[in-house]
UniProtKB/TrEMBL annotation:
Its EC number is 2.5.1.75. Residues 121-148 form a coiled coil. The lineage of its organism: Bacteria, Candidatus Beckwithiibacteriota. Keywords: ATP-binding, Coiled coil, Magnesium, Nucleotide-binding, Transferase, tRNA processing. One of its GO terms (molecular function) is ATP binding. ATP binds at residues 9-16. Catalyzes the transfer of a dimethylallyl group onto the adenine at position 37 in tRNAs that read codons beginning with uridine, leading to the formation of N6-(dimethylallyl)adenosine (i(6)A). This is tRNA dimethylallyltransferase. It catalyses: adenosine(37) in tRNA + dimethylallyl diphosphate = N(6)-dimethylallyladenosine(37) in tRNA + diphosphate. PANTHER family: TRNA DIMETHYLALLYLTRANSFERASE. Monomer.
Amino acid sequence: MIKILIICGPTATGKTALAAKLANKFDGELISADSRQVYKGMDIVTGKDRPRGVKIHGLDLIQPDQEFSVAHFVKFARTLINQIAKRQKLPIIVGGTGLYLDSLVKPPATLAIKPDWRLRKELEKKTIKQLQQRLKKLNQARFNSMNHSDQLNPRRLIRAIEVAKDLQGPTLQANRYDCLWVGLKTDKTTLDQRIAERVKSRVKAGAIKEWQKLKAKYPVNLPSMSGIGYRQLPDPDSWARAEQQYARRQFTWFKENKQIKWFDCEVDFELVYSYICRKLKSPSGR
């Protein structure tokens, strides 16, 4: 089995900085698992980090008006993991998009269901109420399992209908990775402060100008343009609040994963390093 190290946790906890230090220690390469950083030209608002002296994959993969799904990420990351391992280096996956990370390790049955563009074009003309009724008719349990926000999101509803119509398709097999999960967290007050400060620094670095440039070129209803930050600008306070709310949703997601070893985001690096050294030397990370 290929050994991989996964660095996860809420936004603004220093995941990439930690991963870069570990890459230097373990001769590794980074793979970004951030759904917002795959878009070219969306740099300041999404906070793309490019640590010096460390190779990082997964940034600037597509244009803002192109599609990039969980399935795209899994295919991309799996190919890279194999390539990195063949170079006798440690694949280090770093990011806060929990769905990407979970799907990489254990792909859901629906991941191999490809987009049905004809169906999507038909459904895009429907109202939210009509989409809800269509999904309920196909799979009431699937509709009930969606959170309130997704039940009102036409893009989520259309994908759910698409999946419900094709659940007999092929499935992706789970790769036999030897995964070591490390998470970074901190208390709510500290994290809120870190996020607020980071938003201020990004505004100072030109986030609003970046948003204005993109808004002039791309429709605001694109998935890329509806991401946190771009959706709230030019109001930095609203942006900070949205990031803080997102961080709590991230932690709620990750805390379900009992494999994660959590560290405070301000922990001494040597403690994390020594922990990983012990685990990587033992079978199955135990």
